[in-house]
Amino acid sequence: EIVMTQSPATLSVSPGERVTLSCRASQSVSSHLGWYQQKPGQAPRLLIYGASTRATGIPDRFSGSGSGTDFTLTISSLQSEDFAVYYCQHYNQWPLTFGGGTKVEIK
Amino acid sequence: QVQLVESGGGVVQPGRSLRLSCAGSGFTFSSHAMCWVRQAPGKGLEWVALITYDGKNKYSADSVMGRFTISRDNSKNTLYLQMDSLRVEDTAVYYCARDFAPGGPHYYFENWGQGTLVTVSS
Lengths: 107, 122
Fold this sequence. Notes:
The structure holds two protein chains of two kinds. By secondary structure, chain A is an all-beta fold.
């Protein structure tokens, strides 16, 4: 099983700041990596797939990069609605696995 | 618009069974792979099982293999999760989710239901 490790666990930021979230795979997953956003009491929302392709309707302040084992989700200017938990998920092989999440909270 | 509505959650004793359903609408249900993902209270996401669009192939997490069975009825636009021999650690919100595009599977999920809570407790 591929283990996905996200860092940091919690990030305290101010609106308008640039945010960088990290996701590392225990072995290469090529570009088979997605990012999800989850707000309290809501279902996850797909942000990025293929490591860098934005899903439908996702603002361009969200961008993904990386391949192999190291990936990054960047939010160029954090908006109030972006405070949430972010998960990465690989889909390179069975089983699919998620990272533990990074909580982005208000500073 | 795409809608996924889960049902069937509730409180159940350890060792008992429960069947979850997920009704899809607003898209061609029979064209998409579907999956179940769960989230224990205050915890992260855990993929549970996936079924291809035609039901011919099924994949399950080790933690539920042999106990949970994913299935679908394309004539009813409905996905199921039969959960047997339930354990306390199966307590979670269970989400159904639609694979990204028709055919596939692509293994990433753009549309999710609102979730249904399963509580396993004596």
